[in-house]
Amino acid sequence: MSPMSVAVPVLRVADVARSMEWYRSVLGFEAEPFPAGAPHEFAIMRRGTVEIMLRHTPYGMRAAKTGDFDVYVRLGGGELRAFLADVSKRVRVARGPEKMPYGDVEFDVLDPDGYRLCFGEVLADSSGIPLAGKEPVAERSWSPQA
Fold first, then answer.
1. 62-146: which CATH architecture?
2. Domain ranges within the chain, ordered by starting residue
């Protein structure tokens, strides 16, 4: 069998240009649209080794909202807190941060088409981050400086 190197999620979006701008301005992705001029049929979004494809569909294809994430991005380098602090300046955090039972600290954001992106990392020090499902949201005391 041939080796595989990466799987790329394809998100069906109503407006590729709008979604490209959101992924650039909120999450720091670079865009490679096709065709180069609008209206775009698709765009490959890249940040480091992470790729997400945005594919135009006239109606959007977002599945029913279940609370589950559509894309999981594993972070590295112990920088989840800094990344979260940076992202939360530009978009509302939909969930978290929370320490999951399997050890990852995770948080979610929603893109303009309603796709839920989950960012997670195992942190050496997760102090100050609540356990998932254990603390009511109003009682959480997380801050980017923790």
1. 2-Layer Sandwich (3.30)
2. 1-61, 62-146
Q: Cβ(126)–Cβ(105) under 8 Å?
A: yes
For the domain spanning 1-61, the CATH number is 3.10.180.10
Classify residue 23 by burial, with Cβ atoms within 10 Å: 0-12, 13-18, 19+. Answer: buried
pLDDT at 136 over 60: no
Can you say how many angstroms the Cα of residue 74 is from the centroid of all Cα atoms in its chain? 10
Half-sphere exposure (Cβ direction) of 33: Cα atoms closer than 13 Å: 17
pTM, whole model, 2 decimals?
0.78
State the average pLDDT over residues 20-33.
96
Contact 115, 67 (CB under 8 A): no
Distance CA 28, CA 83 (A): 10
